[in-house]
Design a protein that fits this description.
With 308 residues, the chain is α+β, with helices and mostly antiparallel strands. Among the domains are: 1-55 and 133-170, no CATH class; 190-301, Immunoglobulin-like (Sandwich), CATH 2.60.40. 37% of the residues lie in helices and 18% in strands. The protein has helices at 5-16, 21-33, 35-54, 62-79, 114-158, 264-269, and strands at residues 190-196, 202-209, 215-219, 228-235, 243-248, 253-256, 271-278, 293-296, 298-301. A five-stranded antiparallel beta sheet has the order 6-3-2-1-9, with no helix packed on it. A hairpin with a 5-residue loop joins strand 2 and strand 3. Helix 1 (5-16) crosses helix 3 (35-54). The two termini are 86 Å apart.
Length: 308
Amino acid sequence: MAHSEDHIALAAEYALGTLDADERAQVETMMAVDTEYSALVHAWEYRLGVLNQMVGSIEPRPIVWENIKAAIGHSTEAQAPLVLPRAEQPAPPPPEPAAEPVVAPVVADATPAAPATTVADNANVIQLAGRAKRWRNVASIATALAAALVAMLAVQVYQPDLLPERLRPKPQIQTVEVKTPAPSPVPSAQYVALLQRDGGSPAFILTVDAATKNFTVRKVGADAEPGKSFELWLISDKLPRPRSLGVIGGSDFTARPVLADYDAGTINAALFAVTVEQAGGSPSGQPTSAPVFTGKLIETVPAGAPPR
């Protein structure tokens, strides 16, 4: 339902508390029958409530109430009607004798409606004056509301601690993702075994990484016979028989991950041996000839040592 400007102004003044008793009763009646108008009044109360929150309550001095009571009592006495005793009231005058009817001549240009026109004009003036006063009050309310909002914004920016808790601006949290470089992996220990015959020149160099247990065999001074293959074995007193680590390839380097099946103690104490087998390795999984090259691991790089 659309409301007139006067109704909106009444809602604002009702929220401000500047209406007289009749106007307040009119607004409350409209609120009771019109939910939209009731929401309009509540909206004005919410807007103007900021003004009440920006200032603290001030207790008037006792002399103020005494002056008000004295003024009210004096006004009441001044406006009390004069009531005469029944005995002193004057008697009504005797009725005058009826006069003979007099027929007045009709005047064509008489204007009897002039007093009514004057009353209508005065009513319009009074209505316009009341409307102008009401809108002046609304303008004053809007100005005060705008000033209060500006003051509240300034306090929120510069001194938010002075405001009530629910009016303080909420802290803005900004999440910043900081990427830190991944820690450098700790170098693992490195072991090397020289696989050679009777203390002669090494034929193979076996390198083992302690962390991954991967090994690499580098061929140095050994060449396989035609139709034959070199096969690497792990021999340990913790194992019932030698374990094959695979055939050493024909290239210079051969890498295998098969040491992952053994614990570090077994690997570090084991004897690594190379036998000559038929092409492709031993078919039975056991050495078919005596080892031709052997060696044990020694630690060359300790664990956690920085690279050079």
